[in-house]
Structures are given as C-alpha cells and as structure tokens.
Design a protein that fits this description.
Length: 458
C-alpha cells in the first residue's frame, strides 16, 4: 500500500502542547508515513527580518542563531528526560545554526545577498524543524530519519523564491529514497535546482512541497494538519457558525485558496489533481483521529443545494488602472504593460477592461513598483495611470455557478439590500467562481450578506 504524506505547518508548531499533539497524530498512523514539516511558528518571518538587518549589522548573525538555539533548546528540554539524547539533537541543530551564522556573517561582510543565498538562509527554519521532530520521535522509540530535499533528489526549475518541482527529474529518486520501512521527516519549503542551489517554493510553500512529494511517491493521500476545522462556508472569525465543507474538488479548493482562504497554499492541488491523490484536512486540536478528515479534496464533483460552497475574501489585491478614451480599442497596450510587469516578477491576477479603462488586479505589495514601471512606458492613449488600494476582493466558489441561473442575481440583490456598492465584478473566468471588488470598508458586510443569503436562509 502506498504511504501517506503528512504535513505539519507552522500553526502546529507554536507551543509545547502542539508538539505533544504532533506526536499523538504520528502514533495514530499505523504504518510509517512521510512527514513534511514547516518552520516553527514565526521563524520564517524572523529569518526574513534577520536577512535584511544582516546587510548592515554584523551582530545580527550571532543574535539570530542564539535566539533560534534557545527556542529549540527550550522546546527540546520539555521532551527529553534523557540528557544524552538532548545533547545529541542539540549538537545536530547546532551544526545547522553554525552554518546559518556563517552565511549571515558573509552577508554582513559584503552588505549584500544573492537570490540564491537569500533562499538558502530562509530554508534553515524548516531544516531545524525536521531535525527537531526526528529527534523527538527517535527518543520515543519511533524510527524516524531526516530526509533533506538535497539527499532525496527533489529537483526544481531553479526559479529562486517561487520554484516549481521538476517531476521528470525528481520522481524516481524521491520515490526510491522514501521507500524505507521507517518515518521520513522532510523539511518543506524548498527543493534544489539542477546546480544544487536551494530554491524556495514561495511563502507558505511547504504545502506545495508536501503535495509534490506525495505526487512523486504516488501517495495514498496528502494529509494536512491545521489548527482550524477544515474548509468552511466562510471565515469563522467573521461568521459565527459557518457550515463545514466535507468535500471539495481540486479546482474548488484551488479557487478558494487563490481568493484568500488561508487554509491551503493555492498551488497545493497542482501536483495532485492529475494523479487523483486526495488531500485530507484535519484539525490537530481535535481528537487526532487519522481516519476522520474534516474536508476531503478530490476529483469527485458534488454540487451543493445552494450551489455555493463558500464565500471568501482577500485584502491582498489592489488595482492598477490605466485611463484614457480608447484604451479598450487600441491594440498592444496590454502587451507592453504585461511585459514590463513580468520583467519585474509581478504576477497579474486578473484584468478587467472597458473602452475607457484597463484595470489590472495585482498584489497590493507590488502596486507602487508596478505604477512606476507602467508610468514610464510610452503609451500615447493612456491619459492617466492610477493606483487603487482601498479595495477588497470577495469571491464565491462552487461547482455549478456557471450552469445555474439566478446565483449572480441573488448575490447582487443581497449586496444591494445591505447598501453595498460593487466596484467591479467578474464571472465566467472559471466555471466555478464569481468574484467582485468592493471598498475595503464594505468587505466584511459583503461577506456577511452573501453568507446570510446562501447559508442562513432556507
Ligand atoms: N515557513 C515557510 C513560510 O512561513 C513555509 C511554510 O510555512 O509553508 O512561508
Ligand atoms: Mg505555513
């Protein structure tokens, strides 16, 4: 029987209790699993900060590694009665931290870091998590070994900061390396370029790493442990009793993640959908029962009664607006603009055009650089380039949206009833999603109105 790939994220690595829960979950899988683990909660952010500061402060290297050593040591001491084990694991973590310290010192010396070095430095959070968990499992008599992406042959396309796995080059070696009759613990978040350089999969990329590994070994399933109740009809921080979603298709899950559902990295389904490997979402604060996932993501399509499965939102997008009478009719504008944005590594999430304006949806963090780049292009028909950043994107997702009439009418009626103005909207880009833009100040009310209309009135 194929193995299960089990992913624990930063949200499972916050406290002593969390580590206890991870151990319980691992014990509950009867057969050896492949574990993919993230950095401890907050550690990647800490490293990003250190990377920045190290460029002009040589004391940062020591401070950073001392902090991380203390963090791990305190967590380890809670679990190891055995002094010998404690010394052994601390020494292994110490080796990693020494390396990290030397890299940070190098950055301080030159005042600079290449993209390759940045990716490498940021991978240490995951590296030490893997050594940490393996040590704890071993101390409990559970046979576990660290399997670094470099030793199992997880090869990427070499794109620093947002790499993809090269399955042609990775599958055979990853499969072979993970076939042993023991638990393998893999640091997520990165793979290796053909030249052997660390390449990150992007923020939150351990989900994608776990999915890629699941695909390489033809896993039974990818089990993702979170600290929330799986996918829900809306964010429980906004809606008091959201409806649990027991089953989603790969596409529904991908769209929800893309439009802001924080539960899964949007790229997680990519490696798994063609291979029909299910993703199962669990809540680690529950009873650790490995046979009762809260949400299963698979190929089987379910159309729910009210069509919609969930309403989600994102505050991360903004609009770059190009105004001018005739921008919609003049060929070549988008080609120039998208080439410039692509050159700066800026991803375009959506484009909505009309005769007198072009609206480009991009991440808020990219808006000002995009504005500078686009303003510098010679575009005769564009009278004005403008940034709009006080907007939110609200999206509804569900199989059947495109095939059933009346969904859009209900959405817009519910919004109008609550006095919410829709700035822009888009349906049909994918058959299972409709999304619209509102002023940021209207976002929560928009989510509530739609949730009320589709999930609270029968
Ligand atoms: N530690 C990385 C991050 O915080 C990767 C992950 O957690 O998935 O982005
Ligand atoms: Mg994460």
């Amino acid at each position: 029987m194929p193995k299960t790939v089990v992913k624990f994220g930063g949200s499972n690595l916050k406290s002593k209790e969390d580590i206890g829960r991870i151990i319980q979950v691992v014990k509950n899988y009867r057969d050896p699993v492949v574990i993919v683990i993230s950095a401890f909660y907050g550690v990647t952010n800490y490293l990003i900060d250190a990377l920045e500061k190290a460029r002009h402060d040589e004391s940062v290297a020591k401070i950073t590694t001392a902090y991380l050593l203390r963090l791990k040591r305190e967590a380890l001491e809670l679990y190891f009665a055995d002094q010998h084990q404690l010394t052994k694991i601390s020494a292994e973590i110490g080796i990693q931290l020494n390396e990290l310290e030397r890299f940070l010192q190098g950055i301080a010396l030159t005042g600079d870091a290449s993209a390759a070095l940045e990716d490498h430095v940021l991978s240490y959070g995951e590296r030490i998590s893997a050594i940490f968990l393996t040590g704890i499992l071993a101390s409990l008599g559970i046979e576990a070994r660290v399997a670094l992406p470099e030793s199992i042959g997880l090869v990427t396309d070499g794109d620093f900061g947002s790499a993809s796995v090269d399955f042609v080059k990775s599958t055979a070696s990853v499969r072979e390396a993970l076939s042993g009759d023991y638990i393998s613990v893999i640091p997520g978040y990165y793979g290796l370029s053909l030249e052997g350089k660390t390449t990150l999969f992007g923020r939150g990329g351990s989900d994608y790493a776990a999915a890629a590994i699941a695909r390489c070994i033809g896993a039974q399933s990818l089990d993702i442990w979170k600290d929330v109740n799986g996918f829900l009809s809306a964010d429980p921080k906004i809606i008091e009793n959201p409806v649990p979603i027991l089953q989603l298709t790969y596409n529904e899950a991908a769209e929800l993640a893309y439009f802001g559902a924080k539960i899964l990295h949007p790229r997680t389904v990519e490696p798994l959908s063609a291979a029909h490997i299910p993703i199962r979402i669990f809540n680690i604060t529950g009873d650790a029962d490995v046979s009762k996932p809260l949400t299963v993501i698979c190929a089987e399509k379910v159309v729910s009664k009210g069509i919609l499965k969930s309403v989600t939102f994102s505050e991360d997008f903004g609009i770059l607006k190009l105004k001018g009478s005739g921008v919609g009719a003049k060929p070549g504008i988008l080609a120039k603009v998208t080439t410039a944005l692509h050159g700066a590594g800026i991803n375009i999430s959506s484009v909505l055009t009309s005769q007198i304006s072009i609206n480009i949806l991009i991440a808020k963090k990219d808006l000002s650089i995009a504005y500078t780049l686009v303003s510098a292009i010679d575009l005769s028909v564009v009278a004005k380039v403008q940034i709009i950043d006080d907007i939110s994107v609200v999206a509804v997702v569900g199989n059947g949206i495109a095939e059933n009439y009346g969904v859009a009418a209900r959405i817009f009626t519910a919004l109008a009833r609550n006095g919410i103005n829709v700035l822009m909207s888009c349906s049909g880009a994918s058959p299972i999603v409709s999304y619209f833009l509102v002023k940021s100040t209207d976002c929560i009310a928009a989510v509530k109105s739609i949730h009320h209309e589709f999930f609270e009135t029968f």
